Amino acid sequence: MKEVTKMTNEKAKISIKASATKGRSAEQARTGAASNSMAMKLLNVEAMYGTFRAVNNVTLDIEAKSVTAFIGPSGCGKTTLLRTLNRMHETLPGATVKGSIQVGGADLYDPSVDPVRVRRSVGMVFQKPNPFPAMSIAENVSSGLRLSGTKSKSDVADIVEESLRKAALWDEVKDKLKEPGVSLSGGQQQRLCIARTIAVEPEIVLMDEPCSALDPLATLKIEELIGELKTRFTIVIVTHNMQQAARVSDTTAFFNMGADRGGYLVEAGPTSKIFTNPSNKLTEDYIAGRFG
Ligand code: ADP
Ligand code: MG
Asked: What does pTM read for this prediction?
């Protein structure tokens, strides 16, 4: 038990690899992701559902401590690609991934990498807020901590408070931490889910249309929160809302579908450039609302 606690408390960032510094310099091994300003490097990533190639050949750098938005028409593979970034895609029967995704010098898909550790380092927030129905507000936030071994009651309480503060929810819930998570409003529930995700100190947070079930005010709150979170975390957000991508992201990646319905990356770049002066006519047409 002692060992487990020690391992999970260690602050070593992107601890996806249980052992091993194979193929890495001593410097890289020591500093981990900090040695590299790119949080993730995707190289020729493909994702299949059986024989259907939903994502083709994506090569993309995702910068650390910034917000990258995935945009593009429905069905172009945004969610699928997002789910390859924390090894969730492969949990579906028949679903496979090719190519490489480098994080801090290690490949997420290296056979020595434990997918459970990946999902800890790369957290995910879903379209619909999904607090655990049987759990209180506080239990929802601490639910991931329990899996990671022992912590004292006061440590857990501290982490719950800190995570709720970071998720801009503390002031609204501090007097009712024992009430069910599902008793909160939709927007509060989504911030609760964000608090739950960041409580385990991931390096990267993936968000799949996190505001699509929320009203405009709750959406605004989440967008403000994303702006604060990016000082600590690397964020990748899928959004179908162009204004939202323009407001919250630093980098935008635009995806489209080919004739075979397979998704591919059209272009990626600084959000200001993608929205005002894209390189590809397709990007311009999509942003102007001419298709999708
Ligand atoms: P987006 O998030 O951009 O709307 P998705 O990643 O959800 O797109 O879907 C990409 C493609 O993969 C679509 O053609 C969709 O029908 C297909 N797809 C998604 N999930 C599955 C699945 N579980 N099994 C088979 N095909 C799927
Ligand atoms: Mg989607």
From this structure: 0.88
